[in-house]
Specification:
This protein has 20 helices and 20 strands. It has helices spanning 4-12, 38-43, 53-60, 73-87, 134-147, 159-163, 171-174, 188-202, 207-222, 226-245, 296-310, 338-365, 367-381, 434-451, 466-478, 513-547, 554-564, 567-572, 575-582, 584-597; strands spanning 18-23, 29-35, 64-69, 103-106, 114-117, 126-128, 247-248, 255-263, 267-276, 279-289, 317-320, 331-333, 390-399, 402-412, 415-416, 422-425, 459-463, 486-491, 496-499, 502-507. Helix 15 links the parallel strand 17 and strand 18 (486-491). The termini are far apart.
């Protein structure tokens, strides 16, 4: 029931871009959203046919609505992001990160030092990062120390201090790590070449450093200073080795951000790749827990804003797996082929792998959450009204109509419940009629469950197409259960999912967890039925053979079967053993029979 005050707010809301806030009875902001059209977007929360439980809970707690109009959808996006960070509402996605990531800083000073830090300060220095892995930072700093003679002291090396000889060279100079800028032994212009190369390196452009050392190597060779030339060559090899470990994409691609997202009912997984000078120079993955069944588009936009801000990306081009219109003064690319598509595929592979790893971790640490997530996904994929906590699957097995049997396997919380498995001999059907057999078994199963007052399943799966499904539905109608229990059939050839009274089958993604659970059930039911059928035929064949042996009574046959298990084994044993078991007369009759069959 919508309150009169909210009805008035909805009727007077403008049809312009803006940001809206939902407040509870305590005037606390519980949700912040953006809209291209405020009136339409906010009114959509109060529709009568909303199916999302989370959205219903949100609407139930709305006591007041506030909004602000902005110039464009892009402005709304940016304002929404800043307000969410400020107020951190209960029902919004919060991309918070407790980690303090390391940065590499080029200090704003004469003879700039190159340091690592976890604090970014507004001191005029240049900060590069953040880096998600401190090992990467150490590797880069080691490369710098091997390539360049950088100072490590904290002296104020301005012109006056150097001119007045305020400082003396230290041990670093004497062991060759520093060239003595404090005493004027190295000019600042020469030192700034190092800094320029380092700056390019940190932006992903290694060619400046490589060209610098190539020139140094060639100059040293011409002057016959082969030792210096060798050192320069080793530095070039070091740079090339580092470069080869970066993921090379295409040297034509300059500065590009790549984002991809995949999701399930409860979580979304985002991968971010930053590309510079044809190489991936940064990657980062995040997992997002959905609050209100947000769309992938919404979640990816939030991620793009936050991750670009976090990693200080100024790239004007963004590749994504969602076809965005250009917002935020950024050019969005949704590639279909070419180098951009290869980049997007690389990001999607990382996203998929990240999701797999996260789900495996959840399966180990929190199996209950893992099962609930799969059930939520099955509910959505199979268009069910509730989670299929209890599923039963049926299969028929026969060979040319003989010894027809059926199996019923039971899954609870998407896992086999083997104690609840059941086997059936077909009693009312003659010949190979799978449809009639399926109708009989489904009727018997649920008639008994009703009589015993047992809980009915949430979903019934039958192995087969429309024929088996319609036969099962007949049985449910006889019992008055056709509207109480969901039922579907799965045809093996193309893994088609059939629903009652729907001629068009559902095709699930071959990699979806929903299809994997159904396939596992179907295969389990098939295995269970086949084993039962095989045992029944073997027993029948064995009994038939014994029945034709003249002069052997029922007790003798049972005694032999218990002791030796089969006619084949009985044929192989000695007469002495048989005489000991059943006597000389019966042994002769048995041996005569066996000899007549060979």
């Amino acid at each position: 029931m919508i309150s009169p005050s909210i009805k008035i707010e909805l009727s007077t809301m403008p049809s312009q871009p803006g940001v809206y806030q939902f407040l509870n009875t305590e005037s606390k902001i519980i949700y912040i959203g953006k809209a291209k059209n405020l009136k339409k977007r906010v009114a959509s929360y109060f529709r009568s046919n909303i199916s999302s439980r989370k959205t219903k809970n949100l609407v139930k707690n709305i006591s007041e609505i506030k909004h602000v109009v902005v110039n464009s959808e892009s402005d709304a996006l940016l304002l929404e992001n800043s307000l969410i960070k400020k107020y951190q509402p209960k029902y919004n996605i919060l991309l918070r990160d407790d980690k303090t990531y390391p940065w590499i800083v080029i200090k704003n000073e004469s003879f700039p030092r190159v340091l690592t830090t976890r604090r970014v300060e507004k001191d005029g220095s240049e900060y590069f990062g953040p880096f998600t892995n401190y090992k990467t930072v150490r590797t880069i700093m080691d490369i710098f120390s091997n390539l360049y003679n950088l100072r490590t002291c904290s002296y104020d090396l301005n012109e006056n201090n150097i001119y007045n000889k305020k400082y003396k060279v230290c041990l670093e100079f004497h062991i060759g790590n520093c060239l003595g800028g404090c005493e004027g032994k190295q000019s600042e212009d020469e030192y700034q070449i190092y800094i320029s190369n380092i700056r390019d390196f940190l932006k992903g452009k290694l060619s400046s450093s490589i060209n610098y050392f190539k020139k140094e190597m060639n100059d040293a060779s011409k002057k016959l200073n082969f030792e210096k030339a060798q050192r320069a060559k080793e530095k070039i090899e070091l740079l090339n080795n580092y470069q080869s470990k970066s993921t090379v994409v295409d040297s034509k691609l300059k500065s590009i951000d790549v984002f991809s997202i995949i999701s399930d009912n409860s979580h979304a997984y985002v991968n971010y790749l930053q590309v510079a000078y044809g190489r991936v120079i940064r990657f980062h993955n995040i997992e997002i827990k959905k609050k209100l069944d947000e769309s992938d588009r919404e979640l990816l936009l939030i991620s793009i804003i936050n991750l670009r801000e976090k990693f200080n990306s100024k790239n004007n081009t963004v590749i994504t797996n969602i076809d965005f219109e250009n917002v935020l003064d950024i050019t969005f690319i949704f590639p279909k082929a070419g180098d951009n598509k290869k980049l997007l595929d690389l990001s999607l592979r990382n996203t998929t792998q990240f999701k797999i790893e996260k789900l495996k971790q959840v399966q180990i640490v929190d199996p209950e959450r893992h099962s609930l997530r799969i059930l939520d996904q099955m509910k959505t994929d199979l268009r069910l009204n509730k989670n299929p906590v209890h599923i039963e699957c049926f299969d028929i097995s026969n060979i040319q109509g003989s010894n027809s049997v059926a199996s019923c396997v039971v899954f609870r919380n998407a896992k086999p419940s083997k104690n609840d498995y059941r086997l059936f001999n077909i009693k009312t059907v003659d010949g190979p009629d799978d449809y009639a057999s399926m109708e009989e078994v489904v009727f018997r199963r649920y008639k008994r469950m009703i009589e015993e007052n047992n809980d009915l399943p949430n979903l019934i799966v039958v192995d087969g197409g429309k024929g088996q499904l319609n036969s099962s539905l007949k049985a449910l109608k006889k019992l008055g259960l056709e509207k109480k229990v969901a039922i579907l059939g799965i045809a093996k050839r193309l893994e088609e999912i059939f629903y009652p009274n729907d001629p068009i089958p559902l095709y699930l993604n071959k990699k979806s967890e929903t299809l994997k659970v159904i396939q596992k059930m179907r295969n389990e039911a098939h295995r269970f039925a086949i084993n039962f059928h095989r045992n029944k035929r073997s027993k029948q064949a064995l009994n038939s053979s014994f029945d034709t042996i003249p002069g052997l009574g029922e007790n003798t046959k049972i005694k032999l079967l218990k002791k030796f298990k089969s006619l084949k084994k009985i044929s192989a044993i000695s007469d002495e053993l048989l005489v000991a078991e059943i006597g000389k007369s019966k042994t002769k009759k048995l041996r005569d029979f066996l000899n007549s069959r060979s």
